[in-house]
Amino acid sequence: MLDQIAKLTAALAESEQRRVTEQQSMSETVQQIKEQVMNLARRPTTSAPVDTDDESDDDDYVDLTP
Question: Which domain of life, per UniProt (predicted)?
């Protein structure tokens, strides 16, 4: 009986250690994703070039393909 309790206790401790390791790994991954999102948010956005020609706006758009 004591042997069984010792084995179960060891298995529980091992399972807990795996859980803690997985949690740390997930936390690191989440932190990396947050940093990437923040870096994307800080990047300057580009706007469309100003239409400087005096011609019709019809030539500024591409026709739909059939």
Answer: Eukaryota
